[in-house]
Design brief:
46 helices, globular, Importin_beta-like_NTR, phosphoprotein, ARM-like, Exportin-1/Importin-b-like
């Protein structure tokens, strides 16, 4: 509370920049977050005080002016008694030249703050403000024009004017007829046409034009302004060439942004009437000119537009229309292939983590999205012929192979002589070519695994080629990825090569592989293993796991160095991937071939878990490994159930790692339908809930442990799905429901989703008559639970929707309310009415947040 007064005093003292900045920012934060603390009769005094501060501090520092302007804007938005704030501010300050800087700053931030998430002003107040700002918008534009006339070519003032105009465009309240004939628009384009315009001013003008173009996205309702902007932007082509000639990259990037925004705004017009009126295809020419700029950052700006164009044309699916745009896409692809070339003096493999590497990945994605317009096969053949007929330098070859790899999967592999020829030629590449060419050729082979599957005669030469790569330090990981792809697609053909895969897996650490590549190789091996005859699987799985198990045993037998045992995560992750992807087809009644292996491995996993029980990261990997082991053999893991649950519960009492709750949910999913396991699983749930509730009941417990919330409700939901009556008849269910009601306020995506799913599924068990014999009992138990908690739940949900949760969570809340309504409509109507009556009707600034009529309309809409 004292901060209001302190900040005010510091601003009056005006000691130095730091203390004033601190005070101005404090004032802004207080108005944003704690405005409710002030009694209404103090609002006018606060406003007058802030206006006098901004006037007296206007020359101290621009950042202080911005903070105070934000404070004034946030106050104006919340203070309902301050009517027509724009009008009063302009009337008070517009005749004083020295006040102009802060007046324009306030007028710039005011529209920006209207949609601020930190000001919870409510939809009614927001609508009122937007109407108010729209009413005064032409006064603001006229003021800005006067400013320009008075200050002549004062650059700082022009930047402020353009920023302010952009802000009003962004809010979407400017009258387009008024703007179309306004001098300010002319000034804007004049600044952009002059090559002597400074970088900062050029950027501000570009931002403003982009905002204007964005504001008229709905072109048909803004015709006059749309035409002015369209023609204005087309005049900038000469200025763009001038900037290129002067090597002014900042301006080139600005022009490209404007051209892209132009194309995005007129996208639908262009597709609807290409070449006519504002569907003029010169807009695409502008983007292709930009694509010709030697710096790849320029063309990258336009990617989103090309992606949207492709999406639009894909949906319209009109061959004649595709024909009009095809040449543009062909030219784009040509430019992109050139931009993907590495420097001729580049050494080593292509980097995929630097900026250029990320650019190439984006090119690859874009090419996949627009290739249908050109035709994958046609493009693939053209690219191949440039390699076959010419003798291009290595960097051109590498870039062509890179684009071919991007589209290889979209080419139909059936009876395709070009594809088989490419594959034949690539695997014959000599080891003397540039290492980057070999790298990308290996990527291409991996992308062509469908072709190998259709033409098994290539399997041997392809595997030989990839094995050469695997033995080389810089090519090992990319070769491993390609082998993984081939194993995934050619599982049946690869069965004959299983011994070779096993040899690689045994010697995995003798290759220079990234962790991800090593795990990928094991995944490929496991996928092939699952296709072997059942009687061979157990032995081969045991061989495949042996290396990792030996390593874990070795770690357990070592003396812990300096009190820390060595890290087993590499081996746990490798076992996990093997279990995850060894999924043979087992007929009913047959013993699962992996059961024996997993029983043999359990003691090592159990001991590893015990040794590292305090380390969350390692315990998480142990649980992940066990999860896939249980999933792998399903009911065949019954003998592990007792010892596993006992160990989980005992470690969880001391170290409540949330992954134990997740593992519990897997066990309930696998065994919850088995009559003999239900009581044991319920005991597990109760034993895990006690430490969990203690953790979540601490101050900010829910907010600090979202993973625990997520996993607890996954576990509870699995119980509802597998054995609802067991849970509903237990003593623990009341506590779980109370915890769920408290956790509905948590704005963490996964945790909130889990909580809502639990509540929805719980109520649904009393709604869905699936003709099981326990339906009446379930309905009765849900009725009791709702009688106890229904009103509290509905009230809490309405409150969280208004005050706690981001909009993307609302569909989940709607699902819950729907289930309650289906379960008992009359009672739900009463609960909802009570919940709505409890909502605050007015903000602390005196604005009406919700009228009685709005509440009754809302109630009707939800319940009808």
């Amino acid at each position: 509370m004292y901060a209001w007064e302190m900040a005010d005093q510091l601003l009056q003292l005006k000691q130095d920049v730091e203390s004033c900045y601190f005070a101005a920012q404090t004032m802004k934060m207080k108005i944003q977050m704690s405005f409710f603390e002030l009694p209404p009769e103090t609002h006018i005094a606060l406003r007058d005080s802030l206006l006098s501060h901004i006037q007296s501090l206007k020359d101290l520092s621009p950042i202080i002016v911005t903070q105070l302007a934000l404070a004034i804007a946030d106050l104006a938005l919340q203070m309902a008694s301050w009517k027509g704030c724009v009008h009063t501010l302009i009337e008070k300050y517009s005749n004083d030249v020295s006040s102009m800087t802060f007046l324009i700053e306030i007028l710039t931030v005011l529209p920006e703050e209207v949609h601020s998430r930190s000001l919870r002003i409510g939809a009614n107040r927001r609508t009122e403000i937007i109407e108010d700002l729209a009413y005064y918008s032409s006064t603001v534009v006229t003021l800005l024009m006067t400013c320009v006339e008075k200050s002549g070519s004062n650059e700082k003032m022009l930047i402020k004017v353009f920023r302010c105009l952009g802000s009003w465009f962004n809010l979407g309240v400017l009258d387009s007829n008024f703007m179309a004939n306004n001098q300010l628009l002319m000034v804007l384009f004049q600044v952009l046409q002059r090559h002597e315009t400074s970088t900062n001013l050029h950027e501000a003008a570009s931002d403003c034009v982009c905002s204007a173009l964005y504001a008229i996205e709905n072109v048909d309702t803004h015709m006059p302004l749309a035409l002015q902007l369209f023609q204005g932007v087309l005049t900038l082509e000469t200025a763009y060439h001038m900037a290129v000639a002067r090597e002014d990259l900042d301006k080139v990037l600005n022009y490209c942004r404007i051209f892209t925004e132009l194309c995005e705004t007129f996208l639908e017009t262009t597709v609807r009437s290409p070449g006519q009126g504002m569907g003029d295809l010169r807009t695409l020419e502008l983007l292709l000119i930009c694509a010709g700029h030697p710096q790849y950052e320029v063309v990258e700006i336009s990617f989103n537009f090309w992606y949207r164009l492709g999406e639009n044309l894909y949906k319209t699916n009109d061959p004649a229309l595709h024909g009009i745009f095809r040449p543009y896409i062909q030219r784009l692809l040509h430019g992109l292939a050139r931009h993907c070339q590495l420097d001729p003096d580049h050494e080593g493999i292509p980097e995929d983590t630097d900026d250029f590497g990320e650019f190439r990945m984006r090119v690859s994605d874009l090419v996949k999205d627009v290739i249908f317009l050109v035709g994958s096969m046609e493009c693939f053949s053209q690219l191949y012929s440039t390699l076959k007929e010419g003798n291009p330098p290595w960097e051109v070859t590498e870039a062509v192979l890179f684009i071919m790899a991007a589209i290889a999967k979209s080419v139909d592999p059936e009876n395709n002589p070009t594809l088989t020829e490419v594959l034949e030629q690539v695997v014959l590449l000599p080891e003397t070519v540039h290492i980057a060419v070999r790298y990308t050729s290996i990527e291409l082979v991996g992308e062509m695994s469908e072709v190998v599957d259709r033409n098994p005669r290539f399997l041997d030469p392809v595997l030989n080629y990839l094995m050469k790569g695997l033995r080389e330090k810089t090519l090992a990981s990319v070769a491993a990825k390609a082998i993984h792809n081939i194993c995934s697609v050619c599982r049946d053909h690869m069965a004959q090569h299983f011994q070779g895969l096993l040899d690689i897996a045994r010697a995995l650490d003798s290759f220079a592989l990234t962790t991800e590549a090593a795990v990928g190789l094991l995944k490929g091996t496991a996928l092939v293993l699952a296709r072997l005859p059942l009687e061979k699987i157990a032995e081969c799985l045991s061989d495949l796991c042996a290396v990792q198990v030996m390593a874990l045993k070795k770690l357990l037998s070592q003396d812990p160095r300096n009190g820390k045992a060595a890290d087993p995560t590499v081996w746990l992750d490798r076992l996990a991937v093997i279990f995850r992807h060894t999924n043979p087809i087992v007929e009913n009644g047959q013993t699962h071939p992996c059961q024996k292996v997993i029983q043999e491995i359990w003691p090592v996993l159990s001991e590893t878990l015990n040794t590292h029980q305090a380390d969350n990261r390692i315990v998480e990997r142990c649980c992940r490994c066990l999860r896939f082991a249980v999933r792998c053999v399903g009911k065949g893991s019954a003998s592990l159930l007792q010892p596993l649950v006992t160990q989980m519960v005992s470690v969880y009492q001391v170290y409540p790692h949330s992954c134990f709750l997740y593992l519990g949910s897997i066990l309930v999913d696998e065994y919850g339908m088995e009559e003999g396991c239900r009581q044991g699983l319920l005991d597990m749930l109760q034993a895990l809930c006690m430490p969990t509730f203690q953790l979540l009941e601490q101050t900010n417990g829910l907010r600090n442990h979202p993973d625990t919330v997520d996993d607890l409700f996954r576990l509870a939901t699995r119980f509802v799905q597998r054995s609802p009556v067991t849970l509903l008849s237990s003593g623990i269910v009341v506590h779980i429901i109370q915890c769920a009601i408290a956790a509905t306020t948590l704005d963490h995506r996964d945790a909130n989703c889990s909580v809502m799913k639990f509540v929805r599924d719980l109520i649904h068990t009393g709604v869905s008559n699936d003709h099981e014999d326990d339906f009446e009992l379930r309905k009765q138990l849900i009725g009791q639970a709702m009688g106890q908690h229904g009103q509290q739940l509905v009230t809490q949900l309405m409150h969280t929707c208004c005050f706690c949760l981001p909009p993307y969570t609302l569909p989940d809340v709607a699902e819950v309310l729907w289930e309650i309504m289906v379960f008992d409509r009359p009672t739900f109507c009463r609960w909802l009415e009570n919940a709505l009556k409890g909502l605050p009707k007015e903000t602390s600034g005196g604005a009406v947040t919700v009228t009685h009529k709005q509440l009754t309309d809302f109630h009707k809409q939800v319940t009808r």
